[in-house]
Specification:
193 residues, mainly alpha, Serine Threonine Protein Phosphatase 5, Tetratricopeptide repeat, 2 domains
């Protein structure tokens, strides 16, 4: 009888001390699920329940994404920087910073961010594609070509990469290569219709 009573008292103590509270990791997982379902208000609500010191880089990134969607660019930048403080090797934060700087016409800063993202994740073709777009905005055609070649090598089915390669080779006075990539672009876009 004593063991059962002790066990019941133990359970009561656990419940009364709130040991079954939702952990930051569980809140983070729930927030990510709501974000995936485009329920952005619930996502932010859950993320704000996590103590700042316990937020992961992913949590800060999602907060940045939500603020970016609302047009609150400076707050989004702050959140992406917080993500990098939480994990300096979180390439997605560099990538998203690059995207904001591209939108703002700060192409050199965007290139810095994309290069940091590329060093941390060399397998994402969109990092190289966006890097190429930033180079093109600065008139750096050869650098853009190199980034686009890397992108198309990683993934050959992104029509915009082929289109921009056609543009770049045309600028570099290589019409045959330009035509090859334009043909690829046309094939890819025909298949997507």
């Amino acid at each position: 009888m004593g063991i059962k009573r002790t066990f019941l008292i133990f359970l009561l103590l656990i419940f009364s001390n709130g040991c079954f509270a939702v952990t930051p990791d569980e809140l983070s997982k729930q927030a990510t699920a709501f974000y995936s379902d485009n329920n952005f208000d619930k996502t932010m609500e859950l993320l704000l329940q996590i103590d700042e010191n316990k937020r992961s880089a992913q949590d800060w990134l999602l907060m940045g994404n939500l603020l970016d969607e609302k047009g609150e660019k400076e707050q989004a930048i702050f959140m992406y920087q917080k993500a990098l403080f939480a994990n300096p090797k979180y390439y997605k934060a560099y990538y998203n910073l690059g995207n904001i700087y591209m939108e703002q016409g700060k192409y050199s800063i965007a290139i810095e961010q994309y290069n940091k993202a590329a060093k941390l994740n060399q397998t994402n073709p969109y990092v190289y594609y966006n890097l190429a777009c930033a180079y093109l905005k600065l008139g750096k055609t050869k650098e853009a070509k190199n980034a686009l070649i890397k992108s198309v090598t990683l993934r050959n089915d992104i029509p915009e990469v082929h289109y921009n390669l056609a543009y770049v080779y045309n600028k570099l006075n290589k019409p045959k290569l330009a035509q090859t990539y334009m043909n690829n672009y046309n094939k890819l876009t025909e298949n997507s219709l």
